[in-house]
Write a structure and sequence with these properties.
mainly beta; about 120 residues; seven-stranded mixed beta sheet; four-stranded antiparallel beta sheet; about 50% strand
Length: about 120
């Protein structure tokens, strides 16, 4: 499975940005998808996850109410709408595909990963 993120860029604090991730290949039956980020000097952290079979979602507390994860399985595309952005949201954002729900919001070496897209909030 290959994942490619797009849509990153620079935005002023309080603004909005949407990023997407297109995946190709044969995902696991019952796969889940997640967005992760790595801020400067920090470890990678899970931001949001979604289970395409029923659209269950999970958000880290710091983005809940500001970010919205969604997916279109017909287009094999994952989205992250980011509103009310803060400078601390500046990070490289990665999408990930996994076989276990926990791994899609906590991360795992068993997941598939994209190369990342940079989001900068000033």
């Amino acid at each position: 499975v290959q994942l490619v993120e797009s849509g990153g860029g620079s935005v002023q604090a309080g603004g909005s940005l949407s990023i997407s991730c297109t995946y190709r290949g044969d995902p696991y039956t019952g796969y889940c998808l997640g967005w992760f980020r790595q801020r400067p000097g920090k470890e990678r952290e899970g931001v949001a996850a979604i289970y395409p079979a029923n659209d269950d979602t999970h958000y880290v507390d710091s983005v809940r109410g500001r970010f919205t994860i969604s997916q279109d399985s017909a287009k094999n595309t994952l989205y992250l709408q980011m509103d009310s952005l803060k400078p601390e949201d500046t990070a490289m954002y990665y999408c990930s595909l996994g076989s276990r729900w926990y791994d899609c919001y906590a991360g795992s070496v068993d997941n598939y990963w994209g190369q990342g897209t940079q989001v900068t909030v000033s």
